[in-house]
From TrEMBL:
EC id: 1.1.1.95
Keywords: Amino-acid biosynthesis, NAD, Oxidoreductase, Serine biosynthesis
NCBIfam families in alphabetical order: PGDH (TIGR01327)
Record domain ACT: where: 455-527
Gene Ontology MF annotations: phosphoglycerate dehydrogenase activity
Enzyme class: oxidoreductase
Oxidoreductase listed as a keyword: yes
Name assigned to this protein: D-3-phosphoglycerate dehydrogenase
Reaction equations catalysed: (R)-2-hydroxyglutarate + NAD(+) = 2-oxoglutarate + NADH + H(+); (2R)-3-phosphoglycerate + NAD(+) = 3-phosphooxypyruvate + NADH + H(+)
Family per record: Belongs to the D-isomer specific 2-hydroxyacid dehydrogenase family.
Pfam annotation, one family: 2-Hacid_dh_C
Pathway(s) annotated for this protein in UniProt: Amino-acid biosynthesis; L-serine biosynthesis; L-serine from 3-phospho-D-glycerate: step 1/3
Length: 527
């Protein structure tokens, strides 16, 4: 098997390259590619590692024919078109905890720089001016800090600010009352935060809900002389509105690490005397860059080499320890899905997946995802584990999981029920001690079949002579039978045969099997 290949497209600490190499992943570093250049080369890679500079746009993703994973060495994934990646079945992962302390510390540094005019005082002092009376600052002590978005970074900022004896209030619709108590912050609505805060610090992701959250209306509700810190995303602030509020004095100062357009070579807020700027340095410390580079390289290598999924934005997690335990079940789940998907010719309305016995105690989300992949693949070649749940949802297929630890006839069992408007089909499978998947029930009929690459699936009436006729027909066409599994509901009733054959079955032969007396349906299935 050839080695997977990763492109590192942004500045990453050198440890990342070493980790990829040590783990057996080929790696190329090409920093500063133009969008067009990235589109031209991306098809040659299985993985793409980025920070915030490279934009993994829909166009890049459309060209990324072999891409399986995009790793963000950092937190914000707004430079990655997640929707396009998910639709193409590309796993997107970030490193949510590698740079949070560094960014929180930068936030505090920005707040202090703002309170004491440090950047401008520094510049004028270097210039030989001694403007002692010009730079009178304010204390942070006993001031109210309003945190908008109290997640990883917001909560570290809250902790550090409390160390500076600030009163911290937070607006975050997803912050629980208990967590707020644990953090020692007062949970408030945005309106209250704006009215009460002396300093406001933004720590939300950039979403449709948060874009422009600090606009003219919000700024007008603030205390006169409020100070704003933004070390999250530029798009959270309407920059023209902020400039107007700074000019009017409603806002006393703003410290900005991020801008609506980056790299920000020009911006209406640049050179405003009350604005402190840094060029998106929140995560730029030796420690944070080491953390995110190592984490992203390990996560991407684990994914490409072992199927382990950590910190994925668009798929269920699988730890490195779980991956080998899940592996035989993944095959079983995919085969059950593929069996039902190939046997089904009409629209699916509902999918019921039952996990029984040992498997019920495992992480079943990836199993469900791969089962849906198998089920939908016959209709949609581009489906994979990442996009299968989304594709099912888009097609209005209701998916439900039922788990029971109790063992039935088997120590472990996955049963798949597929419903259309008219019918329901069930297929169930297990793992025997050899860890190889076996189909043990189809439409309520017991069977014991291992699925090979080429299978013939026949439903027929249980009548004497059928097996002989089928064997003779296949033999006459020089089709060799590898395995032959049979089952029936009751003597003389419905029967099924699952026949593994060496090589693909020609279509005309399926028609001939279909024409045999007693055959209700014959199908070629591939696994
Ligand atoms: N400047 C930098 O270099 C730098 C470095 C790291 C992270 N960041 C950015 O900082 C931000 C926060 O990162 P994090 O790791 O703390 O993320 P996080 O996901 O841990 O926290 C975000 C918080 O925002 C809250 N939130 C979501 N929607 C909200 C809304 N409409 N109103 C209020 N709160 C809302 C969430 O509930 C969550 O608690 C992100 O935008 C990230 O990209 C910037
Ligand atoms: O979201 C993040 O992690 C930060 O914005 C850091 O971005 P950077 O990796 O480009 O410094």
């Amino acid at each position: 098997m050839s080695k997977p290949k990763v492109l590192i497209a942004d500045e990453l600490a050198p440890e990342a390259v070493q980790i990829f190499k040590d783990r057996g992943v080929e790696v190329e570093v090409k920093v500063g590619l133009k969008p067009k250049e990235l589109v031209e080369i991306i098809a040659g890679f299985d993985g793409l590692a980025v920070r915030s500079a490279t934009k993994a746009t829909a166009e890049v993703i459309a060209a990324a024919k072999n891409l399986k994973v995009i790793g963000r060495a950092g937190i914000g994934v707004d430079n990655i078109d997640i929707k396009a990646a998910t639709a193409r079945g590309i796993c997107v992962m970030n490193t949510p905890f590698g740079n949070n302390i560094t960014t929180a510390e930068h936030t505090i540094a920005m707040m202090m720089a703002l309170a004491r005019h440090i950047p401008l005082a520094d510049r004028t002092t270097h210039d030989g001016k001694w403007e002692k009376s010009r730079f009178v600052g304010v204390e942070l002590y006993a001031k109210t800090l309003g945190i908008v978005g109290c997640g990883n970074i917001g909560s570290i900022v809250a902790d550090r600010a409390q160390g500076l004896k600030m009163k911290v209030i937070a607006f975050d619709p997803f912050l629980s009352a208990e967590r707020a108590v644990d953090l020692g912050v007062e949970k408030v609505e945005l309106e209250t935060l704006l009215k009460r805060a002396d300093f406001i610090s933004l720590h939300t992701p950039l979403t449709e809900q948060t874009r422009g959250i600090i606009n003219a209306e919000a700024l007008a509700k603030c205390r006169p002389g409020v100070r704003l810190v933004n070390c999250a995303r530029g798009g959270l602030v309407v920059e023209a509105d902020l400039k107007a509020a700074l000019d009017s004095g409603q806002v006393a100062g703003a410290a900005l690490d991020v801008f609506s357009e980056e790299p920000a070579k020009a911006n209406i807020l640049f050179n405003h005397p009350n604005v402190v700027c840094t060029p998106h340095l929140g995560a730029s410390s030796t420690e944070a860059q080491f953390n995110v580079a190592v984490q992203v390289a390990e996560q991407m290598a684990d994914f490409l080499l072992h199927g382990a999924v950590t910190n994925a934005i668009n798929m269920a997690s699988v730890t490195v320890e779980e991956a080998p335990r899940l592996k035989p079940y993944m095959k079983l789940a995919e085969q059950l899905g593929a069996f039902a998907g190939q046997a089904t010719e009409t629209g699916i309305r509902r999918v019921i997946i039952e996990y029984e016995g040992h498997v019920a105690g495992l992480n079943t989300r990836p199993l469900t995802a791969i089962l849906l992949q198998g089920l939908l693949k016959p209709q949609l070649d581009s489906v994979n584990m990442v996009n299968a749940p989304l594709v099912a949802k888009e097609r209005d297929i209701e998916v439900s999981e039922v788990k029971t630890d109790r063992e039935g006839d088997f120590h472990t069992l996955i049963r798949l029920g597929v419903e259309s408007e008219k019918w329901r089909r069930d297929v169930a499978g297990t793992l025997f001690a050899d860890q190889r998947p076996r189909v043990v029930e189809i439409k309520g009929i017991k069977i014991d079949a291992e699925l090979g690459p080429n299978m013939l699936y026949v439903t027929n009436e249980d009548k004497p002579g059928f097996i002989g006729r089928l064997g003779t027909l296949l033999g006459d066409h020089k089709v060799n039978i590898a395995t032959f599994a049979l089952g029936r509901s009751a003597p003389g009733q419905d029967a099924i045969a699952l026949v593994e054959i060496d090589g693909a079955l020609p279509n005309h032969l399926i028609d001939e099997v279909q024409a045999l007396p007693g055959v209700k349906q014959a199908k070629a299935l591939n696994f």
